[in-house]
Amino acid sequence: MTQFFNVGKIVNTHGIKGEVKVVRITDFEQRFKQGNQLYLFLKDQKEPIVVKIQSHRKHKQFDMLLFEGLTSINDVEHFKEGILKVSEADLHPLEEGSYYYHEIIGCEVRTTTGESLGSISEILAPGANDVWVVKRKNDKDLLIPYIEPIVKQVNVKDKYVVIEPMEGLLS
Fold this sequence. Notes:
171 residues; 6-stranded antiparallel beta barrel
């Protein structure tokens, strides 16, 4: 069975010619290259809709996409809240020390002293480095910047991350 991985979420339409506004969930700009095929998953449908990118442009913090054969707002209006994905076959090998979001999400976070803090529930990409959101039991979420002084070890095979918390990080 084919596995799929998130690359974006359609948050709205734009204009009347079928363009959609996408919040990116990938670091790979080439995912939205003209001619690329994506799989669109809608809430009430079991099977994805295969879409091919006709054009891509950046607008503010969004990726604006037009799909081949969908030239009207009426063609794409029902795509709102849909998740764009790539198949497992479309994943590229990464250089050492780089990870796909799906490999990090779900990892248990431990300190260098062995204390379990919770597990990574999502990844934010606000700027220079990613920020990992750690869900904790009976406590507020913890935000871990993915930077070398803090993240000491990432083991995606065994689904855990070891961090050296800097002062104030755990409070």
